[in-house]
Write a structure and sequence with these properties.
single chain, about 625 residues, alpha+beta, Methylamine Dehydrogenase, Chain H, four-stranded antiparallel beta sheet, globular, WD repeat, WD40 repeat-like protein, WD40_G-protein_beta-like, repeat
Length: about 625
C-alpha cells in the first residue's frame, strides 16, 4: 500500500511561501529571476561594410555569449557563400582556386558588441561588449536600463573579425642558412616581422633578413654562450645576454627607421663621412697635443679608403654597449612596452644570481634591483597594465616555486604567487603578442595608424599603442599562465584592474589561482597564448602539446600528439589559426586546430630543434645542427 506525504500545516505552508518569496526577491535584485526563459531578437551586422548577416533570429539571452554568437556567424557565413556559389555555378571553373574553399570553411574568431547612443558630451561608453552572455553584458547593465533596452527590442549586434589577416599554411623549406659555429640556443622575430635574431654557443648573435632570406649582421662581443635576447618594441635596438652575466645593447644603424632599412648596411657616403669625422677628430687631438697648427691643408682631404676596407665598414654590425651587474648567467630579457614608454623603453633582465635588474637604456645605468627571490630567476615579463605610478608591472618566475609581481616604476613587490610545488619554468601573458608587436600593423606593414619613426613623435606612437592595447583588453583583461616542473600549469586571475591603486581593496585582485591545469606527465617547457588570447598552448617533456581555453579560465580542450620526443618550443601565427611546435625529434609540426591532428610535418633539421618563431607568413627555426631554416608556403 502506497503512502502519501502528510499535508503541511497552515503554519508550515506560510513559512514555505515566505522563504520562496525571499528567494525570488533576491534573484530579482541580482537580475537572475528568469534568465533561462528570456529570449531576445538579434540582428547581426558586419563592422566592415555595415551589411546585415541573415535574418533576425530569436536567442536565449542568458545562454548566448561570444562563443555561441561566433558559431552562429560562422554558420551563416557558410550558408551565404553556398548561396552565392549556386547562383554563379555555371560561370565558375571547378578547378579554379581549389584550396580557397577549404580555408573559407574554417571558423574565424569574432568579437561582438552592441552600439548604444549616448548624449553629446557624456562620458558613458558608446558600446556594450558581449562576452559571457547577452543577459549579463547588455540587458542587466546600468547603461542599458537608462536607455530602456529590454528583451522586447530587436538588438542589432555588430561582429568584427579578430584575425588581422590569414596566414598561408607552410609547406616547404625555402632557405638553409649557415653561420653559427655552435648550436642555436634562442631565436626571436623582430616586432615588424622583417628580421630574425638568433643566439648561439659560439659567443655571437646573428641577424637574418627574412624577406631576402639572407644573413645580415653578426653581433660580436660576448665572451661566453649567448643565451637570450629581446627586441625594443619600436625595433630601434636589441639586447642579448650571456653566461657571464653580461648584457649587450645593440643600436640600429639608422635610428629614424625600422626593419631591414634600420639595420641594413651603411651606404658608401655614410662610411666616408664617418672616416672623415674620425680623421678630423684625430687631427684636432694631435694639434691640441702639439700646440701648433698644421699648414698642410685639410687632413681629411687626403683620406682615401681601399675598396676592401670600405666594404668591411659598410657591412659591419653596429657597436654594442655593455651592461654589467649580474654575477651569473642571464636567463631572460624584456623591454618596456611601447604604450608605456615609446621614447626610451627600459630593459629588465633576470639571472641565476636570484635578482632582476631594470636598466635605463638611454644612459645605460641600472635603475634598481629586485632581490626578493631566494633562487635562480628563470623568466621576466613586462606586463601591459600601467601599475601604481604608470611604470608598468613586472612578472618574474623563479626556482623558489613562486611567481612575483612588481611595480615597474618603483620596484616595490606587489605580491607573490606561490601555488606551484616545484620550479616555475615558463609563463605567458594573454597580451604578449600585443606587447611585442603593438606598434606595427601586420596587415599593411609599418607602424600602426600610418605613423612613422621619422615624422611621428614618440608621444604619438605611444598614444596609438595605448589605444590598441586598451581595445584588446576591453573584453578580456590581461591574465597570466605559469608552468612548472611539477607537471602543472596555473591560470591566474587578472592581477591588476586597469590602473592599480594601493592596497588589496584597490586595483589588486585575489591571488588564488582560477584553475589548476593538469594532464602533462612531465615538466612543462613552454606555454604561450594565441595572439587573440582565446587559446593557450603548452609543451612538455612528455612529447605532447596541450590546448586550453584562454577565455574559460584554462579549461582543457585537446591533446596534440605526434612528436616522439620532448617538445621544446611553440609559436602561433599572427591570425591565431596555426600553431607550430619544435621538438627533440628533429622535426617541427603545424597543427590543425579543427581536427587536433598534424596539418603539416616539417622534417629537415639534422638534430634537435631548440627554437622556432613565426615571422610574418614564414617560419624560422634553429637548433643543434647550427643552421637557420626558413619555411614558407
Amino acid at each position: 500500500m502506497a503512502t502519501s506525504p502528510p499535508i503541511p500545516t497552515a503554519k508550515r505552508q506560510r513559512l514555505n511561501n515566505q522563504r520562496e518569496a525571499t528567494q525570488i526577491q533576491a534573484l530579482a535584485e541580482q537580475g537572475k529571476l528568469n534568465p533561462s526563459t528570456q529570449n531576445v531578437v538579434v540582428q547581426l551586422q558586419s563592422s566592415i561594410d555595415g551589411e546585415t548577416l541573415g535574418p533576425a533570429i530569436s536567442l536565449p539571452a542568458a545562454s548566448t555569449g561570444q562563443r555561441e554568437l561566433q558559431m552562429i556567424v560562422n554558420q551563416l557565413r557558410r550558408q551565404a557563400r553556398k548561396g552565392k556559389k549556386r547562383k554563379v555555378e555555371g560561370a565558375l571553373d571547378d578547378t579554379d582556386d581549389e584550396g580557397s574553399d577549404e580555408e573559407d570553411d574554417e571558423d574565424r574568431p569574432f568579437a561582438f558588441h552592441l552600439d548604444v547612443a549616448t548624449a553629446e558630451g557624456s562620458n558613458a561608453p558608446t558600446r556594450l561588449d558581449i562576452a559571457s552572455s547577452i543577459s549579463n553584458d547588455v540587458l542587466q547593465v546600468a547603461l542599458a536600463r537608462k536607455l530602456d533596452l529590454s528583451s522586447e527590442d530587436t538588438l542589432r549586434i555588430v561582429f568584427e573579425p579578430q584575425a588581422v589577416f590569414r596566414v598561408r599554411p607552410i609547406r616547404r623549406c625555402s632557405a638553409t642558412l649557415s653561420g653559427h659555429a655552435s648550436p642555436i640556443l634562442y631565436s626571436l622575430a623582430s616586432p615588424s616581422s622583417s628580421l630574425f635574431l638568433t643566439t648561439a654557443g659560439d659567443n655571437t648573435a646573428r641577424l637574418w633578413d627574412v624577406s631576402t632570406e639572407m644573413p645580415l649582421h653578426t653581433l660580436q662581443g660576448h665572451r661566453n654562450w649567448v643565451l637570450t635576447a629581446a627586441w625594443d618594441p619600436l625595433e630601434r635596438r636589441c639586447a642579448t645576454g650571456d653566461m657571464d652575466g653580461v648584457i649587450y645593447l645593440w643600436n640600429s644603424i639608422d635610428q629614424a627607421s625600422y626593419g631591414r632599412k634600420a639595420w641594413g648596411s651603411r651606404t658608401g657616403e655614410q662610411v666616408e663621412e664617418e672616416a672623415r669625422a674620425a680623421a678630423a677628430a684625430e687631427a684636432a687631438a694631435a694639434e691640441s697635443k702639439d700646440g701648433s697648427s698644421s699648414s698642410s691643408g685639410d687632413p681629411t682631404a687626403r683620406i682615401k679608403m681601399k675598396a676592401k676596407e670600405k666594404r668591411a665598414l659598410r657591412h659591419a654590425a653596429p657597436p654594442g654597449n655593455i651592461l654589467r651587474g649580474h654575477t651569473k648567467w642571464i636567463t631572460s630579457l624584456a623591454f618596456e612596452p611601447a604604450h608605456l614608454n615609446a621614447d626610451s623603453p627600459r630593459l629588465a633582465s633576470s639571472s641565476k644570481d636570484g635578482t632582476v635588474r631594470v636598466w635605463n637604456t638611454s644612459n645605460r645605468t641600472c635603475a634598481f634591483t629586485l632581490a626578493a627571490h631566494s633562487s635562480s630567476v628563470n623568466l621576466v615579463r613586462w606586463g601591459g597594465e600601467s601599475g601604481e605610478n604608470g611604470g608598468g608591472v613586472l612578472y618574474t618566475a623563479a626556482n623558489d616555486r613562486t611567481v612575483k609581481i612588481w611595480d615597474g616604476a618603483t620596484g616595490r613587490l606587489i605580491r607573490s604567487l606561490d601555488a606551484h610545488a616545484h620550479w616555475v619554468n615558463t609563463m605567458a601573458l594573454s597580451t604578449d603578442f600585443i606587447l611585442r608587436n603593438g606598434a606595427f600593423d601586420e596587415r599593411k606593414g609599418g607602424l600602426i595608424d600610418g605613423l612613422s619613426h621619422a615624422t611621428s613623435s614618440p608621444s604619438e606612437i605611444q598614444a596609438a599603442c595605448l589605444k590598441r592595447f586598451r581595445k584588446f583588453t576591453q573584453s578580456q583583461p590581461e591574465t597570466l599562465v605559469s608552468g612548472s616542473e611539477d607537471h602543472t600549469l596555473y591560470f591566474w586571475p587578472p592581477q591588476l584592474k586597469g590602473d592599480a591603486t594601493q592596497g588589496e581593496a584597490g586595483g589588486v585582485t585575489p591571488k588564488k589561482p582560477l584553475n589548476r591545469m593538469v594532464g602533462h606527465q612531465k615538466p612543462i617547457n613552454h606555454v604561450c597564448f594565441s595572439p587573440d588570447g582565446r587559446l593557450i598552448a603548452s609543451a612538455s617533456f612528455d612529447g605532447s602539446v596541450r590546448l586550453w581555453s584562454g577565455t574559460e579560465k584554462g579549461k582543457f580542450i585537446a591533446t596534440l600528439r605526434g612528436h616522439v620526443s620532448s617538445v621544446y618550443r611553440l609559436s602561433w601565427s599572427c591570425d591565431s589559426r596555426l600553431l607550430v611546435s619544435a621538438s627533440k625529434d628533429s622535426t617541427m609540426k603545424i597543427w590543425d586546430l579543427k581536427t587536433y591532428k598534424i596539418k603539416v610535418d616539417l622534417p629537415g633539421h639534422g638534430d634537435e630543434v631548440y627554437c622556432v618563431d613565426w615571422v610574418g607568413d614564414k617560419i624560422a627555426s634553429g637548433g643543434r645542427d647550427r643552421q637557420v631554416r626558413i619555411w614558407r608556403a
